[in-house]
């Protein structure tokens, strides 16, 4: 069953004209990350590679293509977690960095802290030799259009959020049985400056523990934080639930208790995995035993040989 990698491109509603590229992007990311696992790379190497590829794809709300805050600026959050030692690194409200997920890994590997935010994260990035990129290079015309549309006096905030391509993430178990997760986002469309959502918060946007499994979350950030969604799912797994049952129970609780919708990737320590979401859609892909799995709508699960062309 090992190794295995599962990737998502965010929970929510995907406009029809962006569906094809959303599905293609997660498949490309899972192929890229899985190649790391096939080359004896670690679970952490695989999830960071997969999320980096998604950050570089302008169809997602992470890295290039991130949504804009109320001032029309990009502020990004990201987290990684290594299930071997419960080591984790995160950045929040970070600017002018092309790949926040790689900076989050540096926080984990090079500091004794779990999260750096804002200007402190930027200073750390510079000290690590991470290139600073112009903010304009991260802003797409699509993101700017939606920002302007949401500023209008008659804007419907619910409708504006619906076109949002969400948070991206990945979970993996490598050939050694080590587990990791990674999650990255541009956050909430037209959010207040300085707003930090679930992604950078350990136990919310992601969690990994070799003794149980790993989760990467996406959806309504404030709701995910209120129920600590990622850790809640692993708690249910510790009580004997399967990955799928644990995800369903936690998502149902979040919807019932705080009215929140979202989606999750879950994998257990044996490589059993599940993709579950309460939102309308979630683009996802997985790679295991040379098979590519993928889907978008509830109940969809397509497969093909991972070496077959797109």
From TrEMBL:
Any one Pfam family match given in the protein's UniProt record, by short name: Asparaginase_2
Keywords: Autocatalytic cleavage, Hydrolase, Protease
Active site positions, chain numbering: 167
InterPro entries: ASRGL1_meta (IPR033844), Ntn_hydrolases_N (IPR029055), Peptidase_T2 (IPR000246)
One of the GO BP terms on file: L-asparagine catabolic process via L-aspartate
Molecular function terms, GO-annotated: asparaginase activity; beta-aspartyl-peptidase activity
The protein's Enzyme Commission number: 3.4.19.5, 3.5.1.1
Binding residues annotated for substrate, in chain numbering: 195-198, 218-221
Broad class of enzyme this protein falls into: hydrolase
Catalysed reaction, written as an equation: L-asparagine + H2O = L-aspartate + NH4(+); Cleavage of a beta-linked Asp residue from the N-terminus of a polypeptide
Site (Cleavage) residue list: 166-167
Cellular compartments per GO CC: cytoplasm
CDD domains: ASRGL1_like
Similarity-based family: Belongs to the Ntn-hydrolase family.
Name of the protein in its database record: Isoaspartyl peptidase/L-asparaginase
């Amino acid at each position: 069953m090992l190794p295995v990698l599962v990737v998502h491109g965010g929970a929510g509603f995907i406009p029809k004209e962006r569906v094809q590229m959303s599905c293609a992007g997660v498949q490309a990311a899972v192929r890229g990350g899985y190649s790391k696992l096939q080359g004896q790379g670690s679970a952490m190497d695989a999830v960071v590679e997969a999320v980096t590829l998604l950050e570089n794809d302008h169809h997602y709300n992470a890295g290039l293509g991130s949504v804009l805050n109320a001032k029309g600026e990009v502020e990004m959050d990201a987290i990684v977690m290594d299930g071997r030692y419960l080591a984790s690194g995160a950045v929040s409200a970070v600017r002018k960095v092309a790949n926040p997920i790689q900076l989050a890994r540096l926080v984990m590997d090079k500091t004794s802290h779990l999260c750096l935010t804002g200007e402190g994260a930027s200073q750390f990035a510079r000290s690590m030799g991470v290139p600073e990129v112009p903010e304009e290079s991260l802003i797409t015309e699509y993101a700017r259009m939606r920002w302007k549309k949401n500023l209008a006096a008659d804007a419907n905030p619910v409708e504006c959020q619906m076109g949002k391509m969400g948070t991206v993430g990945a979970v993996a178990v490598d050939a050694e049985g080590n587990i990791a997760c990674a999650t990255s986002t541009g956050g909430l469309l037209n959010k207040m400056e300085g707003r930090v959502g679930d992604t950078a918060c350990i136990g919310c946007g992601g969690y990994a523990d070799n003794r149980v499994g790993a989760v990467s979350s996406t959806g309504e950030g404030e709701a995910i934080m209120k129920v600590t969604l990622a850790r809640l799912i692993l708690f249910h797994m510790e009580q004997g639930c399967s990955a799928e049952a644990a995800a369903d129970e936690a998502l149902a609780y979040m919807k019932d208790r705080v009215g929140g919708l979202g989606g999750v990737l879950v994998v257990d320590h044996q490589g059993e995995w599940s993709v579950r979401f309460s939102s309308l859609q979630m683009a996802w892909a997985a790679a295991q035993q040379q098979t590519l799995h993928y889907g978008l709508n509830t109940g969809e699960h397509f497969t093909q040989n991972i070496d077959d062309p797109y």
